[in-house]
Amino acid sequence: SEVDKLHGWWQDKIHPEDREQVMQELDQAILSGNDRFQLEYRFKCADGSYKYIFDRAYIVKDDDGEPIRIIGSMQDITRRKEVLKNEEQNRRLLEAITENAETPIWVRDSDGTIVLANNEWKKLFNIDEEDVIGKSIYDLMDESTAQVFRKNDDRVVSSGETRTFFETVQIDGEKHHFVTSMFPLLDVPGMGKATGGVAIDIT
Questions:
Q1: DSSP letters of 72-120?
Q2: At what angle do helices 16-32 and 2-13 cross, to 10 degrees?
Q3: Among the four residues 53, 54, 64, 164, which has the most C-beta atoms within 10 Å?
């Protein structure tokens, strides 16, 4: 049958690293009695290169319910995969820079909720929580300190520009003096009017 032939010609065109998974999913679709299935994998083109393919297929069966033919369409999604790969690389790069920087770095939304805070920021305020993301600065520090931060957030958002502040903040009963560079993040999808910042302790 055409289904059996598919395991030859088509299988040989699938990238070796994807082949086992793809054939398992195909066999599972046939054995489960599904009429339709979809797969993503790398497929060998006529020029010998591989493209990422999104494959939608329909299994045609005979009167006894046995698969006799597979009708499908392939969509080249290589560009989309490359974009996603680049985005993931950029995300990991930013994460590595943020976590290895020796200065506090953070991002807060318009409500004062932490969107990003690196280890140095958490160390500075002696915050032991492993994950502060999604918590408000009002939950993590005293009211006067939180009010200072919110006021500066509002100033940065209102100006729409990067601004530098000289801040004095009480931490564990001691005054710390900072040069803080803050910037608005107004065009980030899903974040509203957020602000980011980097602080240097000049105490």
A1: EEEEE-HHHHHHHHHHHHHHHHHHHHHHH-SS-EEEE-TTSBEEEE-HH
A2: 160
A3: 53
Q: What gap in Å lies between CA 63 and CA 191, rounded to an integer?
A: 55
Distance of alpha carbon 67 from the chain centroid: 40
Please list, in sequence order, all residues whose beta carbon lies within 8 angstroms of the beta carbon of residue 60, skipping any fewer than 6 positions away.
67, 68, 69, 70, 71
d(CA 56, CA 39): 7
| pTM (two decimals) | 0.60
Q: What is the DSSP letter of 65?
A: S
The Cα–Cα gap between 78 and 60 comes to 28
142-180 pLDDT per residue, tens = 888 888 888 889 999 989 899 998 887 777 777 888 899
